[in-house]
Amino acid sequence: QVQLVESGGGLVQAGGSLRLSCAASGGTFSYHAVGWFRQAPGKERDFVAAMSYSGGNTYYADSVKGRFTISRDKAKTTVYLEMNSLKPEDTAVYYCAADVFGRGSNYHRDYEYWGQGTQVTVSS
User: Fold this and answer.
1) Which residue in 66, 53, 56 sits closest to 27, CA to CA?
2) Neighbours of 25 (CB within 10 A)
3) From first to last of its 124 residues, what are the pLDDT tens digits of the chain?
4) Where on the phi/psi map is residue 112: left (φ > 0), alpha (ψ -120 to 50), or beta?
5) Cα–Cα distance between 73 and 89 in angstroms, integer?
6) Which residues contact 66 (CB under 8 A, 6 or more apart)?
7) Do 52 and 103 meet the contact criterion of CB atoms below 8 Å apart?
8) What span, in angstroms and rounded, lies between the C-alpha atoms of 66 and 61?
């Protein structure tokens, strides 16, 4: 089993930056693809970014492309989401996820393990 714990969320002003972290333990996480999703109250869970297990391929939603960056540390035990030029529309609970097939999908049902989420709030 893989356990994921997000951290780094908070309240920031529009135009500011945050870096989210996702710490993993158990299983064979280093061989998994990783993704970030977000969900605002009353809305569907939306894809944000993903990375294949090798780190050679990254994918971003059009709404965050050029502003957000997904990465992993050398040991592949922590996943990061660097968020710059934040907008109020980025306000949501952000979740990290792991896919045992290592594909880096933008479809949430392709991910088997999920963290509990961290709140990001961007003020006007």
Assistant:
1) 53
2) 11
3) 889 999 999 999 999 999 999 999 987 777 789 999 999 999 999 999 999 887 778 999 999 999 999 999 878 789 999 999 999 999 999 999 999 888 889 999 999 999 999 999 999 9
4) alpha
5) 28
6) none
7) yes
8) 10
